[in-house]
Amino acid sequence: MDVFAVYGGLFAVAFAAATILPAQSEAALAGLLATGSFSPAVLVGVASIGNVLGSAVNWGLGRGIERFRDRPWFPLRPAMLNRATNWYRRYGRWSLLLSWMPIIGDPLTVVAGVLREPLWSFVAIVALAKVSRYLVVAGAVLSLT
What we know:
Blueprint: H1 3-18, H2 25-35, H3 40-65, H4 78-91, H5 105-114, H6 119-144
């Protein structure tokens, strides 16, 4: 098995999972950890970097895409984006700690761009959330194997 292909595949899945594309990075990480063939620290690092970079793409899209929110091709339903915007306005940048959550996490990262969250604080908070999630997954898998 080509180690670069494995890490590259995990990176790609984690990156895609952070965008609006459907992907299960936790399952990919868990499967690779369960094999015992790869460094858990490297796997968590690769997944985390991919996932944070995917979220940064959402942030970048949010910086310029807000004006298209009512178009039929817009990737997020208006109700979902409104809910995320209200959540973000209520709890501020710390709501990004929920960026790892299904359904609400991706819209939150888009809204952070729409509402002009500085990139440095966005990356710091999202990285904390995403790395923590992957550490929990890794801990759970490794404790079972």
